[in-house]
Design brief:
alpha/beta; 4-stranded parallel β-sheet; 3-stranded antiparallel β-sheet
Length: 164
């Protein structure tokens, strides 16, 4: 994994409590990052044709109140895409079993599942607390120098920082 470390100067961690950022790389920095579709029949069928792991609502309802099975599901994938019709039910069904960074992303009906999965894979989310250094994944060791520069360039050009 190739990371870009950013240190902040003239930043008062006592005054500004939290620092959030979302950066979309131009190519996927995490080659093994896995995405699972939690969806209705339409999105599960589309995920099946594009070889994306998927789970339908009936299987999720069977997992309800079984903490060990929910944690096993959460460990299998890095993040989740959830159908628009199920987004309110997912958090109630799965509860606190998902890790904090696995907040599901919304999958809209007219949106291509494969394109959305690639977008989620290439998006880096990070936050800073009291340490004055941020680390952002920009690629992996098999990338060429040009591809790494291609991913690093948006960090300097786009306004991507948000205070919370």
């Amino acid at each position: 994994m190739v990371e870009l470390q950013i240190s902040l100067k003239s930043y008062d961690s006592q005054k500004d409590k939290c620092f959030l950022a979302t950066v979309k790389a131009k190519s996927t920095p995490h080659p093994r990052f896995s995405v699972c579709v939690l969806g209705d029949q339409q999105h599960c069928d589309e995920a099946k044709t594009t070889d994306i792991p998927h789970t339908d609502i009936e299987v999720l309802k069977k997992l309800c109140k079984k903490k060990k099975l929910i944690k096993k599901l959460a460990k299998m994938d890095d993040t989740f895409l959830v159908s628009e019709s199920l987004i309110k039910q997912i958090l109630r069904i799965l509860g606190p079993g998902l890790n904090g960074w696995q907040i599901p992303s919304l999958l809209i009906y007219n949106e291509n599942t494969l394109a959305k999965a690639d977008e989620v894979k290439s998006t880096n989310k990070f936050q800073m607390g009291k340490v004055l250094c941020l680390a952002v994944a920009v690629g992996h060791m098999k990338r060429t120098d040009d591809e790494l520069v291609y991913n690093i360039h948006p960090l300097g050009c786009q306004p991507c920082w948000f205070h919370c």
